[in-house]
Amino acid sequence: MILGIESSCDDSSLALLSCENLELVLHKKISQESEHAVFGGVVPELAARLHTKALPALLEYIKPYLKRIKAVAVTCEPGLSVSLISGVSMAKALHISLGVPLIGVNHLVGHVYSLFLDRKADFPMGILLVSGGHTLVLDIDENAKISVLASTGDDSFGESFDKVAKMLGLAYPGGAIISSYAQKCQNKTRFNFTIPLLHDKRLEYSFSGLKNQVRLAIENLDSINETNIADIAYAFEQTACSHIADKLQKIFAIKKWRKFGVVGGASANLILRARLEKICAKFDSQLFLAPLQFCSDNAAMIARAGLEKYKKAEFLSHQELQISPKSKEILIPC
Q1: Of the chain's two ends, which shows fewer C-beta atoms within 10 Å, N or C?
Q2: How far is CA 201 from the centre of its chain?
Q3: Given strand 146-151, what is the order of strands in its sheet?
Q4: Peptide bond into 333 cis (omega under 30)
Q5: How far apart are alpha carbons 110 and 322 in whole angstroms?
Q6: Which among 93, 78, 87 has a CA at the least distance from the CA of 50?
């Protein structure tokens, strides 16, 4: 089995994936959301301390399988440096103690493989990656090489939900909370936020202007009550998803993908998924969705991406495996 380790941000996770049949033998995860919610966002130093406690605790579940582990795959980029080092340190220790190969995995590549946890990867295809840190449209060719077709110039899709939630005095993380309030909206035409870059030909995303529209709307309220929160949440979510869909349709007209996938923590947004279903139907493209429980950061996707590298013997030495807060490259293992 491949042991996957994920600690790029505020989730500690370990997983065991069968090399033979892609069976997910074990998957354990400890979230830090409640600890960081007090501060309205992820505090790096706190995340590092919590990883130091959580990862050894999760390793206890792995101990009965140690003799069956063929390689250790770990997230090494991108992410918070103080978080990445926790997982990489554990991976190096297991690499030495078990005498098994060491595999470094790009976190973004891992998200792509969340689409193929139980089946063979099938390229070419287009990918929308939306999370708290990234908003990317990727093109994966038949040789499994990635090109970035569009990205965000400021906030990410997921980050904008967190910031709007904070403006409204709601808890962190904001994605699910904003969506929950949006469902309670009674006046769907009360706020009319403009879609960012709607008439701009650039294939680029930007959420700072939309976020500012929300801020101004909140400042003009007499009070922040349940009704006002619901109406603003609805207008914001609809506009943010329309922004994603608008640029994506322009890209689809050029690329004409036969297969398209959406990954990342924010891909769990049901309004966004519904918009993507319509776009794929319009362009006769098959839509791939990661299971909801594997949209957010998890070690199963790291093990799955690691398995592809294991097959090609793409191993790193103890000295070669280093962390990188930024993504040095985005290459999909063949």
Answers
A1: C
A2: 27
A3: 146-151, 135-140, 125-130, 259-263, 286-289
A4: no
A5: 17
A6: 87
User: Nearest 5°: CA angle at 79, between 74 and 267?
Assistant: 90
pLDDT of 255 reads 92
Rounded distance between C-alpha atoms, residue 111 and residue 86, angstroms: 20
Q: What is the pLDDT of residues 137-152, one digit of tens each?
A: 999 998 878 889 999 9
Residues of the chain below pLDDT 50: 332-334
Pick from 90, 100, 128: nearest CA to 2:
100
- Classify the C-alpha dihedral 209-212-216-218 as positive or negative: positive
The pTM is what? 0.91
List beta partners, residue 2.
17, 71
If you count them, how many residues does the chain have?
Answer: 334
d(CA 91, CA 101): 10
Q: Which residues contact 252 (CB under 8 A, 6 or more apart)?
A: 126, 260, 279, 282, 283, 285
The tokens describing 19, both together, are: 């090399």
The angle formed by the CA atoms of residues 294, 299 and 304, to the nearest 5 degrees, is: 85
